[in-house]
C-alpha cells in the first residue's frame, strides 16, 4: 500500500486526502506534504524484517529528514538515530531518542561534539587516527568510557552516483583494513577511555542490489572474527544504510527491507551478533511529495518549459546529482490539453535550476498543482534560501485524514532577524 495514488478521475491523493484540497487550504507557496501512516508502515516493514534478530537497532539517519515532529514519531515507533553533528545529537535528545540506540558517525567529528556524545553515552564510530585521539580526549573530559565501533572501509563498489558512494577504498570515510591492527592496538592502549563493541561500514546510498550488502557483510564478519581473535568482546555489526527506492515509478521490483535483512541474517546469526542498520531514504523518501503551482509555460528554441514556484533551493537533488524524481500534476488535464515534453524548472537564476528534464506532461494551465514525488529524504534537509526562496512549510496527513502543519515555512522576517542588533 502506498500513500500517493491517482484516482480514476485523475486527482492525486495522499492516503484519502485530495492534494488539491490541501493546496486550497494552506498558504500559497510550495510545501512538503507527508503521509504519517506511510512513515509508520515503512518502520513496520523494517521491524518485521528484523524479527528473530535479537537486540537489533534501526538507527534512522537524521540527515535524511530532520523534521522534529517526524523524529518524535520515529522515536515513538522504536527507532534509534544516526547522527553526524553535535546539533543532530542535540535534536535527537530533544526528540527523546534513547541514547543507547544512537550512533555518532562522521569523518570530521569535533571535540566539543564528541564530549556531548561521551556524556550522553551514545555509540561512536571511529573514522581515523585523529578521530580516535579526539574520542579518547572526549572520554577523559566527560569522565566516561565511550562505546566505539570501528568504521571499516570495505572497498565494495555500491554502483551508485560517485557523490553518494562512501565505501570505496579512495573515499574519505572509514579505516582501510591495512590499518586495522593499528586501531586495535590503540583501543587496547586506552582501556579507561574506549570499549570496542563492534564494527561498522556504510557503502553508499541509493543501492538497488542486495548482493552488494551481502558482499560487504561477508567481509565485515571476517573482520569481526579477526577482532575477536585478539580478545575483544565485540557484539555489534553495523551495516550502515543505503537501500534505494523506486524513484522512477517504473514498477521495477526493487529489494525491500526484508530482502536486505534476509541477505545478512545467517551471517549475523552465525557470529551471534546484534545487527545495527542505518536507513534514511528507505524509511522516509516515499512518504512525501513536494507540492508546487505552475507559474506558466514557455518555449525557447526546441525546448518547452513548465515554470513552477518551487526550485532547486527547496529541492536540490536533480541539480546536484542529476537525480530523477517522478513528477505529475495533481489534477486531471482538460481533454483538449496537448501532451508535450517539458523541462520542469523553477524561478531561480541558474540553468541548473530544474526539478525534472524531458517529462511528458499535458500542458498545464497556470496555477495547476504539480508534485515532485519521493521528496521525503534529502530534500527539505538539503534546502537552502538561495535567491531568498525561503524554506517551505511542511504538512502531514494524519491517520484520521486531517492535515497538520509540522513545520512553519520560513519568512522574510525570519531572514532579517539574523541582522538584528548588528
Ligand atoms: N549511514 C551513514 C554513515 C551515511 O553516511 C548515510 C548517508 C546513511 C547511513 C543513510 O543512508 P540512506 O539509507 O539514506 O541511503 N544527499 C544524498 C544522499 C547522501 C547520503 C549520505 N549518507 C541524496 O540526496 O541522494
Automatic annotation (TrEMBL):
Catalysis performed (reactions): meso-2,6-diaminopimelate + H(+) = L-lysine + CO2
PROSITE patterns given in the database record: ODR_DC_2_1, ODR_DC_2_2
Sorted UniProt keywords: Amino-acid biosynthesis, Decarboxylase, Lyase, Lysine biosynthesis, Pyridoxal phosphate
Transmembrane segments: none
Gene3D superfamilies (UniProt xref): Alanine racemase, Lyase, Ornithine Decarboxylase, Chain A, domain 1
Cofactor(s) of this protein: pyridoxal 5'-phosphate
Annotated InterPro entries: Ala_racemase/Decarboxylase_C, DAP_deCOOHase_LysA, De-COase2_C, De-COase2_CS, De-COase2_N, De-COase2_pyr-phos_BS, Orn/DAP/Arg_de-COase, PLP-binding_barrel
GO molecular function: diaminopimelate decarboxylase activity
Domain annotation Orn/DAP/Arg decarboxylase 2 N-terminal: ranges: 38-285
EC nos: 4.1.1.20
Its job: Specifically catalyzes the decarboxylation of meso-diaminopimelate (meso-DAP) to L-lysine.
Keyword Amino-acid biosynthesis: yes
Pathway entry: Amino-acid biosynthesis; L-lysine biosynthesis via DAP pathway; L-lysine from DL-2,6-diaminopimelate: step 1/1
Family stated for the protein in its record: Belongs to the Orn/Lys/Arg decarboxylase class-II family. LysA subfamily.
Source lineage: Eukaryota, Viridiplantae, Streptophyta, Embryophyta, Tracheophyta
Domain Orn/DAP/Arg decarboxylase 2 C-terminal: 32-376
Any single Pfam family the record assigns to this protein: Orn_DAP_Arg_deC
Chain positions found as N6-(pyridoxal phosphate)lysine: 63
Protein name: diaminopimelate decarboxylase
UniProt cross-references to HAMAP family, sorted A to Z: LysA (MF_02120)
Gene Ontology CC, one term: chloroplast
Signal peptide (from-to): none
Catalytic site: 349 (proton donor)
GO biological process assignments: lysine biosynthetic process via diaminopimelate
Amino acid at each position: 500500500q502506498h500513500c500517493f495514488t491517482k484516482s480514476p478521475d485523475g486527482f492525486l491523493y495522499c492516503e484519502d486526502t485530495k492534494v488539491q484540497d490541501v493546496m486550497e487550504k494552506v498558504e500559497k507557496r510550495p510545501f512538503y506534504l507527508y503521509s504519517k501512516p506511510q512513515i509508520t508502515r515503512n518502520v513496520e516493514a523494517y521491524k518485521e524484517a528484523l524479527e528473530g534478530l535479537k537486540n537489533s537497532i534501526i538507527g534512522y539517519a537524521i540527515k535524511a529528514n530532520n523534521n522534529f515532529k517526524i523524529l518524535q514519531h520515529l522515536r515513538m515507533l522504536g527507532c534509534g538515530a544516526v547522527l553526524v553533528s553535535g546539533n543532530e545529537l542535540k535534536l535527537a535528545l530533544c526528540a527523546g531518542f534513547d541514547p543507547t540506540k544512537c550512533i555518532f558517525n562522521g569523518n570530521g567529528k569535533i571535540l566539543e561534539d564528541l564530549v556531548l556524545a561521551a556524556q550522553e553515552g551514545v555509540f561512536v564510530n571511529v573514522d581515523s587516527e585523529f578521530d580516535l585521539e579526539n574520542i579518547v580526549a572526549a572520554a577523559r573530559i566527560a569522565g566516561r568510557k565511550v562505546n566505539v565501533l570501528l568504521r571499516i572501509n570495505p572497498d565494495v563498489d555500491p554502483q551508485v552516483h560517485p557523490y553518494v558512494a562512501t565505501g570505496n577504498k579512495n573515499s574519505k570515510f572509514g579505516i582501510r583494513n591495512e590499518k586495522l591492527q593499528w586501531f586495535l592496538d590503540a583501543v587496547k592502549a586506552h582501556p579507561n577511555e574506549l570499549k570496542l563493541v563492534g564494527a561498522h561500514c556504510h557503502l553508499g546510498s541509493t543501492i538497488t542490489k542486495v548482493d552488494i550488502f551481502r558482499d560487504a557483510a561477508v567481509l565485515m564478519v571476517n573482520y569481526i572474527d579477526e577482532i575477536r581473535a585478539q580478545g575483544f568482546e565485540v557484539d555489534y555489526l553495523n551495516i550502515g544504510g543505503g537501500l534505494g527506492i523506486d524513484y522512477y515509478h517504473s514498477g521495477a521490483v526493487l529489494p525491500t527491507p526484508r530482502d536486505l535483512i534476509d541477505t545478512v541474517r545467517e551471517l549475523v546469526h552465525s557470529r551471534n551478533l546484534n545487527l545495527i542498520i542505518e536507513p534514511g531514504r528507505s524509511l522516509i523518501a516515499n512518504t512525501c511529495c513536494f507540492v508546487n503551482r505552475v507559474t506558466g509555460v514557455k518555449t525557447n528554441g526546441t525546448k518547452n518549459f513548465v515554470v513552477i514556484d518551487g526550485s532547486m533551493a527547496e529541492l536540490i537533488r536533480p541539480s546536484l546529482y542529476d537525480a530523477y524524481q517522478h513528477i505529475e500534476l495533481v489534477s486531471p488535464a482538460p481533454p483538449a490539453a496537448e501532451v508535450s515534453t517539458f523541462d520542469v524548472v523553477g524561478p531561480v537564476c541558474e540553468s541548473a535550476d530544474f526539478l525534472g528534464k524531458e517529462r511528458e506532461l499535458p500542458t498545464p494551465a497556470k496555477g495547476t498543482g504539480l508534485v515532485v514525488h519521493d521528496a521525503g529524504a534529502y530534500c527539505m534537509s538539503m534546502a537552502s534560501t538561495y535567491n531568498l526562496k525561503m524554506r517551505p512549510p511542511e504538512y502531514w496527513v494524519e491517520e484520521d485524514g486531517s492535515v497538520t502543519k509540522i513545520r512553519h515555512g520560513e519568512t522574510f522576517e525570519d531572514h532579517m532577524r539574523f541582522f538584528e542588533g548588528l
